[in-house]
Request: fold
Amino acid sequence: MSWREQLDDLPPDQRVLVEGGSLSQRFSKQPLALTHPVLIGGFYGFLVSMALLLPHGYEHGWNQNSMRDWAFLGVLLMLLVAITGHASLIFAQLLKRPPISLRRELAYPMPFIGLSILSVMLVTEVDSGLSENTATWIRYLGWALLLTPGPVYIHLSWAPRWRLLCRLEEGLDPFEGEMPTIPHSEDLATTEDSDMEMAIEDIEEDPPLLHIAEGEE
Reply:
């Protein structure tokens, strides 16, 4: 992956922005053709469909019709999230905005909480003691918590980051002048040199007085 050679020439802040967190770094280790936002979205839809296999089979039975409905639901989810990923890439190319890292303590638990809510609603009879309107809203909440993190991560983080990686691989400036291109190390070295020169000039102009004890010459 030729973009890694270009990454070493970037300033530290730009390098961190391009590499991203642990999840983005896992994706970036793969070829860019395999980590297109459409494919990442479809993969998230596949994970969601696999997570719903057990509660769906428990509620509707392990028969041919139930498995067919589950397969249709899985394909639908993969298609919807993939389309969302492609739309996110289009917005990233138009707006040219930098990637935004999501807060892990909020994004990571959401799919598990949503899956738990849907599992309880599908497997148990807790909805029998609730009104139809309340049970419907709880199901919507579970679906929202389960599906939202993937598309949000692709839209805010991975699609803009994938665009930057593609520009790096093509040998282009990924930030297009949006961020400074002087490494922080050079800035720091320049500042330290200036401070050292000023200190030397002050010493030459006004040398320090040495304390001379009595009886010493």
User: Anything to note?
Assistant: The chain has one domain: 17-201.
